[in-house]
Amino acid sequence: MIQIESITKRYADGTVAVDDLSLEIPDSSITVLVGPSGCGKTTTLRMINRMVEPSSGRILLDGQDIHQQPVNALRRSMGYVIQNAGLFPHRTILANIATVPRMLGWDKVRARKRASELMERVGLDSSLAKRYPYQLSGGQQQRVGVARALAADPPVLLMDEPFSAVDPIVRKVLQGELLRIQEELGKTIVFVTHDIDEAIRLGDTIAVLRTGGKLAQFAAPDDLLSHPADAFVEDFLGAGRGVRRLSFFTSAGLELTTAPIVAADATDAQVAERAAADAPYLLVTDTDGKPLGWAEPKSLTGGASSVPAAELISYGRPFESGRDSLRDALDCAVLSPTGWAVAVDDTGRVVGVASQLTIGDAIRRAHAEKGAEASDRASAAAAGLKVAP
Ligand SMILES: Nc1ncnc2c1ncn2[C@@H]1O[C@H](COP(=O)(O)OP(=O)(O)OP(=O)(O)O)[C@@H](O)[C@H]1O
User: Fold this and answer.
1) How do beta strands 56-61 and 214-219 pair?
2) Which of 27, 73, 95, 263 has the greatest CB tally within 10 Å of its CB?
């Protein structure tokens, strides 16, 4: 655990970048520092690896004051990733990644083997190993930056706006990969961003800082969205808090129906039986159970194949039942021309459908359950008990 205890940083010109900040950063999880430009995020991060020394207060790593530790050893225990990757321009990709292991005295063969493994782990093709940084895209360079930071297997990873310089699509991909790598490696990650959506996607816990380096709120993303501490945090979170919070509700409990589903080889009689369920639309699937599209029952009087697949009403984008959130399910229903969302399994086969009304009920239930959990936790805390989150 990293404990930040009442740290203040006043720069030589009198600027107070961080003011009496205290935070407990738990092990093996992602803690995001977020806030408007100039609120002291980078200064805080750099005090953790002692690139900036605090004016007062202290930081403990696993109970040890970091100021009592040799700075080189401290930095080697902390990978550091910055915007634009900060790669060595005259070293190959493999040599860039092998830098820290080599500094630690590993022999060349072992360091290069480790670097090759890491290239694979961060999704870089081995054919890029001999290139130089300028021969890589921005997204690839960021991947190299992450691989380099992980090379000596440090327990802590400090990341300062690592994905800010790449386009939104690559950024999403890199965020997904970071979550995948974190699932495998379980590092203690401190991640700086000014993008609240990135914070919500990546953070197990989020520290919102306000200008002047003061802590506005320290909470899990779901708590932040449901209970912003004050008007500043609410404003910083922006519009659509309610809908964004649905990302934390699983679709596992959503009631699905298979009543309006017909296979493409269904006969007229089978279609009539499905239509009797009073569904305004029937979902036609191929014989493998994958969705083809919706049709009104009356247009399928000659059996499910009476409307060519190309003329069926689009089913939009399906959601994966149990894995995707209620926000995904709602999004599917809202985007679907019929107002019904299609749920599939991990192979893309239809497992059921849900109407906007059913999804609305699931959302209400999920809110009630979250509310009950929160009040159980509050009662347990009042009684001095600890309950699992
Ligand atoms: N070396 C320095 N000397 C004086 N002031 C500094 C120095 N470095 C940063 N500051 C100031 O300290 C404040 C916090 O800066 P910091 O870079 O930590 O903020 P930040 O939240 O990371 O900002 P951004 O999101 O824009 O990167 C700002 O007002 C900045 O101008």
Assistant:
1) unpaired
2) 95
> Domain of 131: which CATH number?
3.40.50.300
- Which pLDDT score, from 0 to 100, does residue 239 have? 80
Residues 172 and 282 in one domain: no
Amino acid sitting at position 344: V
Nearest-5° angle of CA 321, CA 327, CA 332?
Answer: 70
Q: Distance, CA 42 to ligand 1 centroid (Å)?
A: 7
Q: Is residue 88 part of a domain?
A: yes
Tens of pLDDT, residue by residue over 149-202, are 998 889 999 999 988 878 888 888 889 989 998 998 899 999 999 999 899 999
Q: At what angle do helices 326-335 and 356-382 cross, to 10 degrees?
A: 160
Between the CA of 155 and the centroid of ligand 1 the distance, in Å, is: 27
Tokens of 208: 């919102």
ipTM reported for the complex, 2 dp: 0.97
Query: Is the pLDDT score of 90 beyond 80?
Result: yes
Helix (H) or strand (E) holding 32: strand 30-34
> Does residue 376 fall inside a structural domain?
no
Q: What is the CATH number of the domain that holds 302?
A: 3.10.580.10
**How far is 288 from 141, CA to CA, in rounded Å?**
42
Structural domain including 51 reads: 2-248
